Amino acid sequence: MVNQEPKNLAEQQLIQSLDSQQLALVATWLLSELEHRFEEGYRHPDMVWSLAWMSHKLWILSSNKQNPQ
To answer: How is the chain split into domains, by residue range?
Structure first.
């Protein structure tokens, strides 16, 4: 499911406009945002899940761009 191109047009455009290193950078930034929110004491489950999922998805898409099958 994750390794497929997104169906959302905005996501498709984002993925197509960034190279694998840029996608990895955004994924890392999302994880740092998650860590920052935790340090601030904000641990809302939906926010945690969303940031972790988006980061994971971008790492996989980055990897797929680097190593197309």
So the answer is: 19-66
